[in-house]
Automatic annotation (TrEMBL):
EC number: 2.8.1.4
Keyword Kinase assigned: no
Keyword field contains Transport: no
Protein name: Probable tRNA sulfurtransferase
Name of the gene this protein is made from: thiI
InterPro entries associated with the record: Rossmann-like_a/b/a_fold (IPR014729), ThiI_AANH (IPR020536), ThiI_fer (IPR054173), ThiI_N (IPR049961), THUMP_dom (IPR004114), THUMP_ThiI (IPR049962), tRNA_STrfase (IPR003720), tRNA_sulfurtransferase_ThiI (IPR050102)
Residue ranges annotated for the THUMP domain, each copy included: 62-170
Length: 393
């Protein structure tokens, strides 16, 4: 079947009253972005309170659907056949042909649902429903009408052209990115943080990201892996500005001056501080991490408290109550898993103590950090000044 358009169904954003157009415009923008690299000419537009993607000419159907299925805010994608209005008799034939081609197995129930925006059309919606229902029954005696729970809901929209559709391909839900401000994702090369970014972006939040690397302890390939992960997340979230911070000197300094069992937690506090600096500089309204209670020593309730204490922006931890396997499941679904498990060390795995504290006490950690007083400010400043910014699309 050759489809000429997609009707885009959106859920939550329909209920936003006067703000509705803001959401629809953001949705249109995100759809355009998602289709930018897909083969074909697309015209994305709002019409009669709905969003359509018209694809006149040749286009790659599979790739188009795949790309649309990544746009937050979309709950359903309906492939539409658009017909020229050549009179009702012609429409009957087209509808029979449509049903025949779409549903080779005729052992199905159906309902016709007509909507008439072109008021000059000679038949009213109810008449269209009845008469098209009849021709379908005549053409395919195995088919039956079920007005309550039909297998096939055949929508017929009469406008300047006639739109036929009956299939709904599920979209990801959520809200269009760009409708809820932006947040700073602490992105490592692991499984969790890309999933965390995906989940917050799904609520309409644009992403920025910060990655801390520690050359030569972490390799260039580890960094490339993070760039790749950012690129995979950006397929959903739109472009991501990725700050790559050289963390080596800070890490070595902490290693030299602080108890080794506190290394990770103190490092995590400096990561949060630096990421927050970039977040505030760019007007982000929060930070995002992939932390989950109890997953590792630095993610016990006590550790999370101590890490959190350095931040003034809210820190969003969408995976906080998730088990690893739930997180893995999402990472597989969003296609980050295979990249996340590539075996390049990230900077946390190099400097891990044998027995890291699992119940750090804030006052004690702050006391240990006094050992850093002499040189840390300068190192932090240098790390900020030498940040490498990568625009990921
Ligand atoms: P992930 O799978 O996301 O790497 P993890 O299980 O390895 O997480 P940690 O290393 O304790 O857990 O990190 C917890 C969170 O801190 C990460 O989800 C991420 O948000 C942030 N983080 C850790 N290391 C880095 C890093 N090198 N750069 C940026 N953020 C980091
Ligand atoms: Mg990690």
């Amino acid at each position: 079947m050759k489809f000429h358009s997609f009707l885009i169904k959106y859920g939550e954003i329909g209920i936003k009253g006067k703000n509705r157009y803001i959401f629809e415009d953001a949705l249109v923008r995100q759809i355009r972005f998602a289709l930018k690299d897909v083969d074909g000419e697309f015209y994305v537009h709002k019409s009669y309170g709905r969003v359509y993607v018209d694809c006149d000419g040749e286009y790659d159907y599979e790739e188009t659907v795949e790309s649309l299925a990544r746009v937050f805010g979309i709950v359903g994608i309906c492939p539409v056949v658009r017909l020229e209005d050549k009179g009702f008799e012609e429409l009957k034939k087209e509808v029979v042909a449509y049903m025949d081609e779409m549903y080779p197995d005729k052992n199905k129930t159906f309902k016709v649902e007509a909507r008439r925006s072109k008021k000059s059309y000679p038949l009213q919606s109810m008449q269209i429903n009845c008469q098209l229902g009849e021709v379908i029954l005549d053409a395919f005696p195995e088919m039956k009408v079920d007005v309550h729970h039909p297998d096939i809901m055949l929508n017929v929209e009469v406008r300047e052209e006639i739109y036929l559709y009956s299939e709904i391909i599920p979209g990801p839900g959520g809200m269009p990115v760009g409708t809820n401000g932006s947040a700073m994702l602490l992105l490592s090369g692991g499984i969790d943080s890309p999933v965390a970014g995906y989940m917050i972006a799904k609520r309409g939040v644009s992403l920025e990201a910060t990655y801390f690397h520690a050359p030569p302890y972490t390799s260039e390939r580890a960094k490339e892996k993070v760039v790749d992960l950012a690129r995979l997340v950006s397929k959903y979230s739109g472009p991501i500005k990725l700050n790559v911070v050289n963390f080596t000197d800070i890490q070595l300094y902490i290693y030299e001056k602080c108890p080794h069992e506190e290394l990770t937690i103190i490092m995590r506090r400096y990561m949060m501080k630096i990421a927050e600096h970039f977040a505030k500089q760019d007007g982000c309204l929060g930070m995002i991490t992939g932390e989950s209670i109890g997953q590792v020593a630095s993610q016990t309730m006590q550790s999370l408290n101590v890490t959190n204490a350095v931040c003034t922006l809210p820190v969003y931890r969408p995976l906080i109550g998730f088990d690893k396997r739930d997180i893995v499941e999402i990472s597989e679904k969003i296609n980050t898993y295979e990249t996340s498990i590539l075996p390049f060390e990230d900077c946390c795995t190099i400097f891990v103590a044998k027995h890291p504290v699992t119940k750090p006490i804030l006052e004690k950690i702050e006391k240990s950090e006094l050992n850093l007083a002499e040189g840390i400010d300068e190192l932090v400043e240098k790390a900020i000044d030498t940040v490498e910014v990568i625009k990921v699309k």
